[in-house]
């Protein structure tokens, strides 16, 4: 074999070896790239799945709300809206005098949310350590005189209620509407002896609806809710006895997430629209 032929063979073998090593390196690089892409895809998929799982979490279960009687119509509407927006939830209400509701909560009655008609009755709950966080005022309410339809007794002022022969009903002074009425009467230096003191504002209003009384001092929201069953008479002294309504999550709540969501709905623009349309004042 000539020296020229040997050099040619060595050159070809060297070239083939280089090409072979380049192919192996390229294959290795491709495999590495596939592994990286696979890992990224797996990571993204896991991240997406985790994010989707978190985003798909839904509220469920029952939310028990203790609320002042004057909130009945507004909160019932908001409860229905809440259930529609969160399928699988149920809002159960207990309406009544704020003082009785506060006593029930401190006595161990199971509830998730408390909406009171005054800071004083809310303080009963917070002082007992039964509220979670600080209560927030979400609306205010003002007094009004409810009379028989058409106002046959021509009542035009708070003073007119002191006239003889009129059957007037007030809320018990232990409940916010009664305390507010007493404050307005004291500010006007008027003395009024009602035919009865009622346990909550709805009971007082109902006396007029049933024509068992000629007039009652209630909230403007209750007069509006009663429609044509009563007539409403505004009086200037009511401006000095406006009640703030605080709402709070309760410490022993059994459905905290849903309870917080309900409170958020009440305080949202949507919730405030329902409340102001019912006659409540903005906080």
TrEMBL record:
<feature type="compositionally biased region" description="Basic residues">
    <location>
        <begin position="1"/>
        <end position="12"/>
    </location>
</feature>
<feature type="compositionally biased region" description="Low complexity">
    <location>
        <begin position="13"/>
        <end position="22"/>
    </location>
</feature>
<keyword id="KW-0732">Signal</keyword>
<dbReference type="InterPro" id="IPR050682">
    <property type="entry name" value="ModA/WtpA"/>
</dbReference>
<dbReference type="Pfam" id="PF13531">
    <property type="entry name" value="SBP_bac_11"/>
</dbReference>
<protein>
    <submittedName>
        <fullName>Molybdate ABC transporter substrate-binding protein</fullName>
    </submittedName>
</protein>
<comment type="similarity">
    <text>Belongs to the bacterial solute-binding protein ModA family.</text>
</comment>
<keyword id="KW-0479">Metal-binding</keyword>
<dbReference type="InterPro" id="IPR005950">
    <property type="entry name" value="ModA"/>
</dbReference>
<feature type="region of interest" description="Disordered">
    <location>
        <begin position="1"/>
        <end position="22"/>
    </location>
</feature>
């Amino acid at each position: 074999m000539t020296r020229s032929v040997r050099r040619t063979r060595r050159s070809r073998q060297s070239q083939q070896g280089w090409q072979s090593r380049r192919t192996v390196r390229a294959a290795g690089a491709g495999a590495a790239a596939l592994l990286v892409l696979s890992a990224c895809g797996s990571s993204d998929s896991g991240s997406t799945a985790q994010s989707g799982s978190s985003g798909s979490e839904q509220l469920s279960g029952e939310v028990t709300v203790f609320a002042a009687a004057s909130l009945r119509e507004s909160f019932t509407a908001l409860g229905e809206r809440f259930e529609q927006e969160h399928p699988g939830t149920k809002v159960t209400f207990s309406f009544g005098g704020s003082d009785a509701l506060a006593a029930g909560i401190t006595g161990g009655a199971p509830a998730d949310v408390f909406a009171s008609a005054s800071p004083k009755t809310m303080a009963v709950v917070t002082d007992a350590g039964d509220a979670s966080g600080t209560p927030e005022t979400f609306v205010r309410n003002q007094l009004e005189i409810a009379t028989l339809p058409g106002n046959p007794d021509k009542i035009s002022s708070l003073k007119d209620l002191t006239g003889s022969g009129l059957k007037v009903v007030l809320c018990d002074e232990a409940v916010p509407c009664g305390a507010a009425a007493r404050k307005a009467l004291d500010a006007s230096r008027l003395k009024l002896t009602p035919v009865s003191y009622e346990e909550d504002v709805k009971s007082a209003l109902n006396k007029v609806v049933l024509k068992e009384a000629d007039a009652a001092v209630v909230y403007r929201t209750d007069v509006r809710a009663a429609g044509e069953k009563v007539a409403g008479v505004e009086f200037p002294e009511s401006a000095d006895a406006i009640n703030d309504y605080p709402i709070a999550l309760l410490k022993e709540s059994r459905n905290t997430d849903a309870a917080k969501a309900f409170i958020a709905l009440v305080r949202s623009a949507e919730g405030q629209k329902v409340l102001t349309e019912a006659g409540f004042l903005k906080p």
